[in-house]
Each structure stands twice: as structure tokens, then as C-alpha cells.
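The data are quoted verbatim for reference:
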Amino acid sequence: MTEIIPRWEWRTFGDDFGDAERLIRQSGEGKMRESGETYIISTTSSNNTKVRDTLMDIKRLQQVNADKLEQWNPVMKSGFPLTPIVLLDVFRAWNLAMPKFKRDEYSFDQFLTEIVGPHPQLRSVAVGKRRCGFTVNGCIVEIADLTFDDAPIRTVAVEMEDAAKVIATVRQLRLDGFENINYVKVLKRSKGIADA
């Protein structure tokens, strides 16, 4: 079994990243990937919960260091249908009490329409991603064109297990003048949801 090491991440969102984007693209040929994901935002949690590649994917925010880098720990990847035992962990990640379930298992559509949709503290957001990945100083550096429920936005991220290399790369790429903000916070902001 492969040990999962939490990664440190710096990320920003916007329309134009100026010199920073030029410097990133000078680092070599980027690797393109496209995906469609569904983020589930909880008004009571800062954890990252989404469905990607038909898997329920949860990352917990472990800590924020003095440079304001965030350390994220992947804690779940579970395929559908989801059982109440798995859903218990999902509701814990949302910091919500688990309701009584009417089914022994839930398909993705049932999960969205019967669990997420009616819940007053949950909101699903369809996120399209067209990502271009680079390697700078051993860090994963990403530029991506996104849509949040069809509204366009862009993001740049730097991540790695070594926090010192992440912040050095952020500064080298002149990204440190931009706001560091994660997916959960920016999605809440875009939907007018107060941060937990």
C-alpha cells in the first residue's frame, strides 16, 4: 500500500496572471487534461468534497503555515453506489449530522437529488476543468481554465509535499502578489455562501 503524504498548496483564481503565467509557460511543455467534476459545498465545513471520475473524493485541510500555504490530506476515494457506512464519513467531512437514509446504497444521481439537493446546508457546483500542468523546482504547477456552473474563471496552483519548495516557487514565479485561496472558499464566494 502506497503511503499518502499530504501536499502543501498555494492557489489563486482570476482572469489574468500576467508575468507569472509567462514565467510558468517558459518552464517547458505543459501536459493537458480535461475533466468534469461536481463539488459539494457545505456551509459548515472547509473540507474539499467532490465527485471526480465517478469517485467520491475528500481532502481535509490539515493546517495552514506561516506563509499561508495550506496542507491538504486525501482521506477518501470511494466509488458509487455509496452505502450509509461510507456516507457517515462524507457527512463527517461536511461537519453535519447524518440523516436517516431511505436506501441501502445511493447512485451518483440519487446522491445528488435525494441527499445533497434537499439539504439546506449543502450545494452542488458543476466544475469543468481544462488543466495544463508543468513542473517547476520539482513542484506541480497548474494553469487551468474552469467553469463554475458554466461561469468562466481561471486558476493557477503550486503544490508539493515540501512547503519550503512550494513557497520558493510561488515567489520565483511572481505569484505571491495574488490572493492565496482554495477551491472551497472561492466556490462559496461565487455562490454567496459564508465561509465556515
